[in-house]
Amino acid sequence: MNTQHERRFRTIRRAGLLCFFAAMIGAASGVFLAFIQPAVPENQWSYPLDVTAFTAIQVWFALQHVGLLLGLFALRWAGALGQSNLGHIGHLAAVTSMIGFAVTELVAIVAAQETKGSPLVGIFGAAYGVFSIVLGAALVVEGIAVLRARVWQGWQRWIPLALGMWVFVPLLPALALSFLGARLAIAGWMLLFAALGWVLMGHAGRSARKNPELGFEGRGNPSLANPAS
Q1: What's the CATH number where 165 sits?
Q2: Which of 38, 52, 70, 83 is the most buried (most CB within 10 A)?
Q3: How far, in whole angstroms, is CA 164 from its chain's centroid?
């Protein structure tokens, strides 16, 4: 196999692997926050964690978003979005909003001791809301692009669309109604990202063996991005 092509396939596989583990640990983190004994009052921004633990987990969440971001990049690299403008726009918006999420996770640490009714917390709450809606819409657009491209087959082709739809139902309603429900909804969303990572790292190895002559995005040959092939 061409060394350059081998390196490219390996990059997709590693990105999928990092996305998978980041998402699985993210799901576990959501369950952990849902059931841990609260250390602070419910109206504190860091709830249910004290300031030290909140700081640590926010740093982790920022790093975790980098893993999810790599999954979004690998979706593009794998060629599953096809070559449409729709896929390009959705991808750009998804990447931008995921970066925004990562930055917000870090900056939100400064409000750890604030109450949930404070203006500063309101700003962070609005930021999370905007990034959630933009990311959800972008993933829906990417999901439509994947379906139209018909590069991936079977259940795999529905994952990007499911990731976007999950934001609007049940994630956003859960965030508005219940702390416990929100944490569990986030955990479920992370499991969908884990599924994306699993598919990406699975298809890269098979495609590398079957299509050593292909380029990075597998232009012109759907089997590169078909994890079932």
Answers
A1: 1.20.1070
A2: 70
A3: 10
